[in-house]
Amino acid sequence: MGIEFCPLADEVGKLTDWLAVAVGLLAAVGTIWVASSANRTSQRAAEIAEEAKGISQQQHLEAVNTREANARIIGRLLLHEVLGLPNRLRALEKLLESAIDGDSGWGALRLLNATGELSIPLLPNAERVEDRIHALPDMIGANLATMISHTRDLVDAAKRVKDAIVMHEARAIGTKTTYSYAGNPSKPGLLLEHLRYMSTLAPSFASEFRQFVLPGIVGEVAAE
User: Fold this and answer.
1) How distant, in Å, are the alpha carbons of 57, 61, 77, 198 from that of 74?
2) Cβ atoms within 10 Å of 26's Cβ, excluding its own
3) How far is CA 160 from CA 107, 143, 165, 190, in A?
4) Whole-angstrom distance, CA of residue 143 vs CA of residue 151
5) What is the pTM of this model?
6) 103-154 pLDDT, tens digit each
7) Are 200 and 222 in contact (CB under 8 A)?
8) Whose CA is closest to 162, among 197, 187, 186, 198?
9) What span, in angstroms and rounded, lies between the C-alpha atoms of 141 and 132?
10) SS3 category, 180
11) Which of 63, 149, 179, 213 could cross-link to 108 by cystine, CB 3.0-4.6 Å?
12) What CA–CA distance (Å, rounded) separates 209 from 140?
């Protein structure tokens, strides 16, 4: 008995082969498309990252420019006050010295006058913009904050000494109102020491501040 070949089976086999080839081609095309899409996505991601970097750099530059502009404005606003601080401290120091070295009667009155002057804020404008001094260069801002702190302590101490001065009103014709200090005897001397310490700090700080606001001008601000 001879072997018979079925033509239909042969055609089916060929069709299967073609289908396998087609599937392979589709898979290859799909792989290429996925790879191409991934490449485009990667390139776009890199572009976005570069754009974000540029935006970040621009924002940083704008922030720096804004801080420098604010620093210049604050510097100009406070320049006169800071430059005048050394001379004002020196004048207050002399006034307080005369009160402490004077006789008990007149000394109390001089102490009243001196502590009255010392009770007035020494850096009022700086205190008003205290929440903005971070815009100043780090060292300038830190030193200004230190001076504000010292002046506040000085004013508070002066007020406490002033509050301890007692006025004795004249009770008879021909007599005068007198004053006496009823507080801790060491407090006026401690106040004077603090004032002298500030007087040593103020000239160099004023010079440093002036150099920042007005570059090119050198030399210390000396108290006269």
Assistant:
1) 26, 20, 5, 22
2) 10
3) 17, 26, 9, 12
4) 12
5) 0.67
6) 555 688 889 999 999 999 999 999 999 999 989 998 999 999 999 999 999 9
7) no
8) 187
9) 9
10) strand
11) 179
12) 7
E strands, the chain, are 165-168, 178-181
Cα separation of 195 and 89, whole Å?
7
* Residue 49 identity: A
Q: Which of 151, 91, 96, 97 shows the shortest CA–CA distance to 127?
A: 151
Residue 22 in this model has a pLDDT that exceeds 90: no
Delimit the domains of the chain by residue range: 81-213
Q: Give dist(CA 37, CA 42) in Å, integer.
A: 9
Backbone angles phi, psi at 209, to 5 degrees: -70, -40
Q: Which residue has the higher pLDDT, 158 or 54?
A: 158
How many Å apart are CA 124 and CA 118, to the nearest integer? 13
- Characterise 181 by phi-psi region: left (phi > 0), alpha (psi -120 to 50), beta (else): beta
The single-letter DSSP state of residue 201 is H
3-state secondary structure (DSSP) of residue 218: coil
User: Which CATH code for domain 81-213?
Assistant: 1.20.120
State the amino acid at position 125 in one-letter form: N
